[in-house]
Amino acid sequence: MGNQNNSLTRLALQKFKKNFWGVFSISIIGCIGLLSIFAYLFAPDASKNANQMHLSIHSKSPGFEVQMLTIPSGIESDQNFMSQLFFGEENTDTEIPIQSYKVNDGILTYIEYTSDGLQGLEKQIALSKFPEKDYKEYIDNRNFIFGTDKYGRDYLSRILIGSRISFFIGFVAVFISLLVGLLMGSLAGYYGGKVDAFIMWIINITWSIPTLLLVIAITLALGKGFWQVFIAVGLTMWVEVARVVRGQIISAKEMQYVTAAKALGYNDYRIVTKHILPNIFGPLIVISAANFAAAILIESGLSFLGIGAQPPMASWGAMIKDHYNYIILGKPYLALIPGFCIMLLVMAFMLVGNALRDALDVKT
């Protein structure tokens, strides 16, 4: 049995490798996954949640460049490298976009940046504010590749950090749905009778409630927040898993290897976990890939409605919500960029699901 499973797995992998779109989509998912994990390493604005606001340069087009003056606060952070890598830097310095500057008699005079050709305010700061009076290290040309959002934050950094929520909600939601769905589906399919009728009654009630309304209800019950959304989405996706597992176990428990396991005196737990479930993982892998895509869309919808990830946390759905009105104001890219990212990630998971379905189909 072990050798047969290994050969079937090897055959499925060979078929999957021949599917161009499946391999291409896996590559996209892997790249987005790496970018989301190490987002602060790649983001131009590595502050926590990329939340450095500069209202004077709000809603600037992609490729916008400006001089940025950083005024050190003198407060030393005790944050370690790992914390900076995964949670962002605790930046206490002040950043000011400027049009020009000059130095005279130990005084740095600068003109703040303003749009539409207006003259900004002229301000002064003593060079003693800068360590060792080396002010040039604190003035640099800042290039905003994706432009800035309506609060003047670096849009590329927000996109990179926002990928974390959309990417990881798939893993958390699918894990919760598999945990609950496997338990409920296994009990219903293996024992049947009143247990099956009761669990199917719960499944049918849950199935009859619109998914978005159920997620909103659970989110409101648990409270607004990052992990609450993850749990809420996961608790609404177990129904599909439970129905698939139930149907597969009803078919599998009549097989000869299950009868042989019962004859050897194995308990129900071992028969289900060691013998039945390993033989029905194919459909579960396919439905899990589809649930990944569904979870991303649900989270984006919740963030768009304002009950998902809360500000200042970056989220693709919330970014669309903040900028959808810019579509008719001449800057549609502010809403289209996060929308395209959502579409790309969802499409990648759907294509992977289709490729896995074809690879695991023994008839082909």
TrEMBL record:
Pfam families noted in UniProt: BPD_transp_1, OppC_N
Bilayer-spanning residue ranges: 20-43, 165-191, 198-220, 226-245, 276-298, 333-356
Subcellular location: Cell membrane
InterPro entries: BP-dependent_transpt_permease, MetI-like, MetI-like_sf, OppC_N
Main location: membrane
Sequence ranges assigned to domain ABC transmembrane type-1 in this UniProt record: 163-353
Family: Belongs to the binding-protein-dependent transport system permease family.
Name of the protein this chain belongs to: ABC transporter permease
Membrane as UniProt keyword: yes
